[in-house]
Description:
Layout: E1 2-7, H1 12-24, E2 28-31, H2 42-54, E3 60-65, H3 69-75, E4 83-85, H4 89-99, E5 103-107, H5 113-125, H6 132-147
Parallel strand pairs: 1-2, 1-3, 3-5, 4-5
The protein binds D-ribose.
Amino acid sequence: MKIVIGSDHAGFEHKKKISELIASLGHEIIDIGTDGENSVDYPDYGEKGAREVSCGSAELGVLICGTGIGISMAANKVRGIRAAVCWNEETASLTRQHNDANVLCIGARFVPIEEAINITKVFLDTPASEDARHRRRIEKISSIEERSRSCDCK
Ligand code: RB5
């Protein structure tokens, strides 16, 4: 698989180790940065990483910031992205199965690297469920995105 990986400064160390894991599993990596611990803005990396998945250059993405939350918020603004913050193997497995999540987000300040590696392995290994109820719910998420392209508050 082609996997995009990205982080802000808070996730940089995790990104290095998770990249090694992904490469060792035989996947191709697109690394969109950041490339050091200088302070950067997580939305820039959330958007950039998510766009690689949205446009089909990568099948799945892994994005890391301090909490995993900010970068997931940015990624989820990109069309077709279902980014999920996961904090253990079970949430990683369930979000692949039930939500067909296409971007994994990890909070480096809260998830130790060993756990982050296990979470990533599970996320990459778990297929999305074909079960009709899960597909229907994912379709509903897509239709929210469609309806939100123009203001429909009223
Ligand atoms: C950076 O200090 C921090 O705000 C960022 O990594 C992330 O946790 C935001 O959600």
